[in-house]
Each structure stands twice: as structure tokens, then as C-alpha cells.
Design brief:
With 523 residues, the protein is an alpha/beta fold. It contains 16 helices and 17 strands. The protein has a nine-stranded mixed β-sheet with strand order 9-8-10-11-7-12-13-14-15. It is elongated. It starts with 9 loop residues before the first strand and ends with a helix.
Length: 523
Amino acid sequence: MTATWTASLADGAGAKKTPAAPGSDKAKRQNRPAGQQNQTDTVSGNSRPAGQDPERVAAYLDKVFADAIGAISSATKGHRNATLNTQAFALAQLCKGGHLDETTTKDALRAAAKGTELTAHEIEKTIESAFSKAEPRDLPEMPLRPKRNDETPEDPCPDDGYVPADGDDPIGGKAADESAVPLGNGTPPIKDSVRAQPAITLLSAADLWAPLPDPVYVIDEVIREGSIVELIAYGGSAKTWMAIDAAVSVARGIPWLGRFAAERGTVLLLDYENGNYELRRRLQAVARARGLVRPVEGIDALVMPSLYMTAPTFEPTISKLCEGRRLAVVDTLRAASPGVDENDSTMRAGLDGLRRIAETTGCAFLVLAHAKKTSGAKTEVDPREQGRGSSAIYDAADAVLHVRYVEGEPQRVSQTKARQGRRIEPFEVSVTDTANGGVLVQARALTPATVATGTEAQALRVVAQQPGTYTMSGLAKALSGERYQTRLERVRGLIDSGRLVVRDERLHPCLADEAGEDFDDAL
């Protein structure tokens, strides 16, 4: 940058001051609002008047301004719009506080962004958005101080103020409001007025025994309002495609996977895995296959944010973002929780945070998690342990959908937990390319090949009559009609398709088939 950041200010009857060289006294005066341009430092002996030191303020504003413009100019491809948004918001706060001139600041931001790949429309939209969301921010205290003859020049940017170091987010400095929560990834901070004191609400007897309203479903039978639902699958098992289809379905109020009715509302995507390009590609492909006019309104995303579920600022920040939303998707739990051993029960802490957000906002969360690897998907696995990591992850959910992946076959989805009051039959999901370049994600009932007949029907009847009695091998031995190895494969197939479930090495009917409440209560 040259003299761009010191673009001229309106003066008096409309005459324009000429741009000054960056860092000069003239530049410092020009970039300050009119009320501050004529401030002087009057010194009498060793005393100075109370208030801000204009020299220190000028040096501070110069540094903040220059760092912001420099960050925009040097932003790398793929991060330029986010950087512009972040820096524009930081400077807008100072403009709203009366410390910088808005016209000059906007001109400087446009000039800095003009050299990137951003279009003029994108630049203008981002700048105006940042200024519309910004609130006034006060400067750190930089008071006048007594001078001594042997005094060394003091730092114009004090340690107790807001000083963006190299690489720092300018909206996250110490001078920012302590209740301002930086989102990372170019998103402006959100105020959290109750952050210092956690709210404690005691439910009275009247509250506890008040009539319960009927549950409201964001996605019928599958995702209840204000709930936590986990979608567990191997990598490459189409779980992200299913989640994106859920986002598009809720945003438009059309059936999820073409099968489950969705209530229309806004959606938040918290993407920690795909990245900007891949997330956009998948969203656009799903919308194209559905024949939707783009852009599909109602979907917002934080892509690869530096705000993780392990951070103390995560809960208040995401809570604000989820206000008024119907659904939020976390992709994936592991990527959103760095530094936490997924086999440790503390992995649940982030999910408990989502629970509190869901309770206060009514927003439902669809959390994507990885499944354990098994040998050819033929291993007996307890439903609580199908997901990778601690069983506390499973325990924290209201409902769990498990995707069984077999290469070349449709994905089979089984509900292995239902604390919401509704149970769904296992179903298949296919992901296919369409002629118009879209990707269609569809669900259907299990194909005739997966419907139990013969030995499988016999196995289901035996387990229904004596749940919790047989192991996998024991049941195979109790059956008749085929050789033992074939019967054993039939039993494994019923487990893989979700028609039978394993608990404590014993077989039980699946949630949709089992009579009584024992299994549901245990979950």
C-alpha cells in the first residue's frame, strides 16, 4: 500500500484535504474525526491534563489501520473475503466509536481489496455487511503521563490496550469488550452479556408437573426440535451427503432423502472437514439434483473455523448463531474437538455444550461421527460401541443413526437409539449422479433381498420370543434348515442390517421390532 489508507477527508465547506504519507502527523490528523483532529498535548511542568494522550491515540490508530489494510492486501487465495470481512468489521467498530472517519476507511478497504480476485460487488457487499453489524468500540486507556527529561519515548501502543500482533485477529484484542466472543474465520464477534455468571434456573413443582406439549419434529420421525442426533458412519459412507441433504431439505421444507418430511427453517453448517470449495460443491450438487433454484436461501456456514467445541467461547458463540434456527450440522465431532482423546469420557463435554444450546434455542443438532472399523463389517458390535471413541458419545445423544457401508451396495441406515419417542425402520440410502451434474441422495425401504425369509425369519421369531438369550453362534446352532455356516452368515446379515442388535454379547430385536420398553429405557 502507498497513500491509499489516508484517503482525503471532507473539510468544512466541502474542500478536500490532500492525501498524506502514511505515518506522518498530517496523515494521523486526517484519519481522525473532526472532533479529534485539533487535539494537542499541552504540558506544564511535569503535569498534563487528564484524558487520552492524542499522540498515543494517533499512533495506536495508525498501527491498527495499517495492519488491517496490510492483512487484506496480503491475504492468500481462498481467505481474501474472510480477511476483508474481519478487518472491515474491526475498523468499522472504531468508526462507529468516532475514532476513524467512515468514508476514508471504506475507501481504503475498497482500494486494498481491489487488488485481490474479489469482484467489486463482493467487496462492496462484504464491507457494507461488516459496517452494518459493527457496534462502537472504545479505545484502550492511553492517558497523558508526566514527562521527565530522562524519559525514554514510550510505546504508543500500550500493553494494556488493543494491539494486534502479527497474525492476530484484530477483533480479539484486549481492548475489545470482554463479552465479545471472536468467532474466527472472519466472522464478527458476538456479545455474550451473561458470560461471566452462568445462569442457574430451579424448576419448581409446578414447572416439573406442567402438561408436556407435543414434540415438534424438524425432520419427521428422525430429528426432534432441540435434540442431539448422531449420524455414525465410516469415512466415505455418504454421511456428509446425507447431512447436506438434510440442510437443503430443512431450508426449503422438502422431505429429507425424499422420504422424511422436514419443517422449513434456517440451518447452520459447522464444517470442520470439507473446506470451502468442497462444501460449496456438495451443496450446489444436491440443490441441482433436487431441481432447486439457486442460491438456496436459509443456509449459513462456518467453514474450517478456528472456534472448536473445546474452547470456552464455543458455547456462547454458537448459542447466539443458533437463535431462531431449526437445525445445525456439526461435521465432524472428532474434527471439532482437537486435543481431546476420543476414547476418554471427557469427549462428551462438547456434546453437553450442544445440549445446553439446543435447550435454550430449540435448534436441533445433527452431529456426524466416525464408526469403528471392523473386519469386513462382519464383527459383532454392541450398538453403544458402533461409533468410534468413548461410549459417552453415544450416551449424550437423543437418537443415533448408524450407517452400514458395503462397497457397491446402498448404505443401510439403522436407528440404534431413540430417546425421542419415535422409532423408525431401517432403510437404504443411495447417492447417484444426475444428468444435470447434480447428486441425488435418496432413501427407500429395504429392498426385497433384505426382507427376512426362511432362516432369517426363523431367527427373528426366536429372538423376539427369547430376547437376550442367544449369542450369535448360539442362535445359529438353534436354527434349522441350512448348514451351520450358512445359518451363522444369516444371523450376521441380520445384525449388519439392523434387524438384530447385540447387547452384552446377547441378541435382541431391533428398536423397530422389539415389544416393550426395556431396550429404550436402557438407552
